[in-house]
């Protein structure tokens, strides 16, 4: 029988380094999380490099890796050694000209439990992801692992209630969001608090509306590698929320940290019984949701 309780972890790191160093660093932090009892462990988005999407530069495609190469081999061995599930976000080279922002879900025996490709791709100042990433084609998934059934969405997916809803309806107990989000330094004073607050609130809303646990892992640090720009100050603040939006663990804005919280499926069931949002959905009235716009 699946466990009714298990511990999840998000790891918040500064990843402004080369791939080899970031890999070693993440392996070390995953070991630390496992030693503290974590059973499902999440790394930040695009863990292996600095956030290269600040510019449109074809040389950055060299950072991508084919499926089941460096990242998969390293974390597969680690997951099997530690007996944990590891969610590993990486830059996938599918073929020349087709690249994805992806995540492995690696099971406790080192096998691939699932693969997710980011569905929503942003194009904002210094977040030029449409230049690099083809939108995902694997859909929204609930992945069964030996620890629990999890759903992985990636960063910009955070803003879409449809993504959270479908993943939860498919059976995900936890929505994991590997993330790379931060402030433009010039905007932080004026807009920073509202931007950060909206980011947290929308995911807490997904937790409430779907009766699921939510875990988001972000980066920290100023990543400034393009001459003449101020870079991006990643705001950290990784967190784990329960099925009523309650904060179970919260990280700082500027420190590398491990967060751990318990997923309690009996609590989740009780919340859904008392707040039966799934029961009361008017699926007969939702047809317009698949339209790009509802024209008058």
Automatic annotation (TrEMBL):
* Classification via Pfam families: CN_hydrolase (PF00795)
**One GO molecular function term?**
hydrolase activity
Which UniProt keywords are listed?
A: Hydrolase
Looking up SUPFAM superfamilies in the UniProt record yields: Carbon-nitrogen hydrolase (SSF56317)
In terms of PROSITE patterns, this protein maps to:
CN_HYDROLASE
Where do the CN hydrolase domain residues begin and end?
Answer: 6-265
Question: What protein does this entry describe?
Answer: Carbon-nitrogen hydrolase
Organism the protein comes from: Flavobacterium ginsenosidimutans
